[in-house]
Amino acid sequence: MEPRNNEARLDPAIISLFPMLRHHKAMKLVEGRRVTECAVCLMDFADNDIVRLLTMCGHVFHPDCINLWLFLNKICPVWHFIFAATAFLYDTHLCSFGPC
Ligand SMILES: [Zn+2]
Ligand SMILES: [Zn+2]
């Protein structure tokens, strides 16, 4: 999928701020929004898979999948949450749950 213009791209530096953690840990953080498959590649997660957590909506994805997706699309693949610098809600307290 080709982006229409450069405005649609999300800065990889911003993407890298989203925490990466094991899937089973991520599921503890997002209780009630359990995500069992990656919405980008549609593969099921294993408990020990490393996932990247989108902190503003609680969805998780394979790091490689979401990195590429966000770089091209700038929206959450599940809810189509639109990322904008001003709407970026990175929650640093998530990291206190353990190694990201
Ligand atoms: Zn994936
Ligand atoms: Zn989402």
UniProtKB/TrEMBL annotation:
It comes from the Eukaryota. Pfam families: zf-RING_2. Its EC number is 2.3.2.27. Keywords: Metal-binding, Zinc, Zinc-finger. PROSITE patterns: ZF_RING_2. PANTHER family: OS06G0192800 PROTEIN, RING FINGER DOMAIN-CONTAINING. Belongs to the RING-type zinc finger family. ATL subfamily. This is RING-type E3 ubiquitin transferase. It comes from Dendrobium catenatum. The lineage of its organism: Eukaryota, Viridiplantae, Streptophyta, Embryophyta, Tracheophyta.
